[in-house]
Amino acid sequence: MLYAVICYNSESVVGAWSKEKDDAVMAHHQGVLAKFAAKGKLGPVARLMPTTTATTVRTGREMMVLDGPFAETKEQMLGFYLFDCDTLDEVIAAARELVHEPGCMEIRPVQFFEPGVLKTAAAK
Known about the structure:
Elements: E1 2-9, H1 11-15, H2 19-38, E2 42-47, E3 55-58, E4 64-67, E5 76-84, H3 88-98, E6 104-109, E7 111-114, E8 117-120
Antiparallel strand pairs: 1-5, 1-6, 2-5, 3-4, 7-8
Family: Belongs to the YciI family.
Pfam families: YCII
Organism: Steroidobacter flavus
């Protein structure tokens, strides 16, 4: 089953990290990811640019394109990992190794969309 592990944290906290702290966190992540990659269980990984670089498209009475995310949140989505794990417990173990205070990792099973057909990764 494919799982998306979505990284959330406060951009102001992460943005205030020294280069050394950021490098150490990324090195830690690389170590965790290398274990899963060696088992063939790691898919795409992406670190997102700050929300100040975001553009949002909203629907309503009229479609709007806005600068920024304008989300009412204390934490922002910073990136994601895609894991191909046999069980939820296996991906939870990965998320536990990746999470850094005060952030969190959200885990969601991934569905593939093909016109007219929704499939989970396990059904492919």
